[in-house]
Amino acid sequence: MIRTPVWQDVSDAGDARGDGLDFDDFARSRQAHLRRTAHLLCGDWHLAEDLTQTALAKLYAVWRRVRQLESPDGYARRVLYRTFIDETRRRRWWERTGAGADQAEVVAPASDPDLRLTLLDALRQLPPRGRAVLVLRFWEDQSVEATAAALGCSVGTVKSQTSRGLGTLRTILADSGKDFGKDFGPGGAGTGTGYLRAEW
Fold first, then answer.
1. How confident is the model at residue 196 (pLDDT cuts 50, 70, 90)?
2. pTM for this one?
């Protein structure tokens, strides 16, 4: 289903011939990436679409200011992640709607489909903020400092969440009974980031 972009209903973001056109160009170029990132966060394509639309609507409302920034893309990233965390705190909609039920139908082929699906399922079992940290660090390939800025937390929090999240992933993957090598094995020395980057 094709949805009408919700930002078209925002009335105070700027005139249609100025800010609006620039924003439309930005939204078209980044929407697919934002939606895929949102899917990694929530585990459901329909909810990912809602998250993306909500984030873009918020971005549009302040686009006159955001378009002057050196990195509007970074600002959009922060809006998406904080929207995700805010929504999970308020409604926990990803549990009520059975998020992730459609993964098998829509996940793109990977070098190891079983590994990819297992990673996505393991990711969904992490708390929202821990999930957001890992997606920022290993899908978005953001630094610790950039991740902290996006989530509005300290560098120390990002480091501890990364360590805790990777440890949880190792445990889940080990319990799955599949052989993922030493990176994800119990007490493995590796971080598993090679798997994360390759399969996400």
1. low
2. 0.69
